[in-house]
Amino acid sequence: MWYDPVFMVETFDGRNVWCKRHYKVVPQPTPGTFKLSVLDNGVTSNEFWTIVGCSDDLSWIVFHYAGAASAFGQRYIGGLLCTPDGKVPTKDLDKIWSLFVSAGIQPWELYIVDNDETSHKATAGPPPLDYFRKEVAAVSA
């Protein structure tokens, strides 16, 4: 399967710009684990993702990832708390934080991503929410 995130980043000169990536996702034999790979500006990064936990009603999910861009000798880890509306839930917060800690991430290391195009920080304009290779999907539909 494919994962096509759209996210805003701040450049070195302080501008906000939208970025898109096109990840190949390969489920692994252990349930809840996936290998992802992405070509980013000519460099391939390989990542291993794990579903650390989620709520019974699927109102939130915690992911952990570890990746490397071996051509640059770079490696990294991180985590995501994902919710349908992008807001941090008020219920289960202690459980969420303990899941991050179990994955080696302290809650103070996290930050809220503001991709709201109406936000005062969103000077990049509306997000490019078209999907990758939509012209191929239109032909095969």
Could you give a quick summary of the protein structure above?
The chain has two helices and eight strands, in the order E-E-E-E-E-E-E-E-H-H. The protein is mainly beta and 141 residues long.
What is the makeup of the main sheet? Answer: 6 strands, antiparallel
Secondary-structure-based class equals: mainly beta
Task: Return Rg in Å.
Answer: 17 Å
Strand content: 35-45%
Strand order of the largest sheet: 1-4-5-6-7-8
Description:
The protein is mainly beta and 141 residues long. The longest helix is centred in the last third of the chain and has 10 residues, at 93-102. The two termini are 18 Å apart. It has two helices and eight strands; from the N terminus they run ββββββββαα. The strands form two sheets. Strands 1-4-5-6-7-8 form a six-stranded antiparallel sheet. The mean pLDDT is 86. The chain has a single domain (2-140), classed as Calycin beta-barrel core domain (Lipocalin).
Q: What keywords describe this structure?
A:
8 strands; six-stranded antiparallel β-sheet; Lipocalin; 141 residues; mainly beta; two-stranded antiparallel sheet
What layout of secondary structure does this protein have?
Layout: E1 2-3, E2 6-10, E3 16-20, E4 23-27, E5 33-40, E6 43-54, E7 61-69, E8 74-82, H1 93-102, H2 134-140
Antiparallel strand pairs: 1-4, 2-3, 4-5, 5-6, 6-7, 7-8
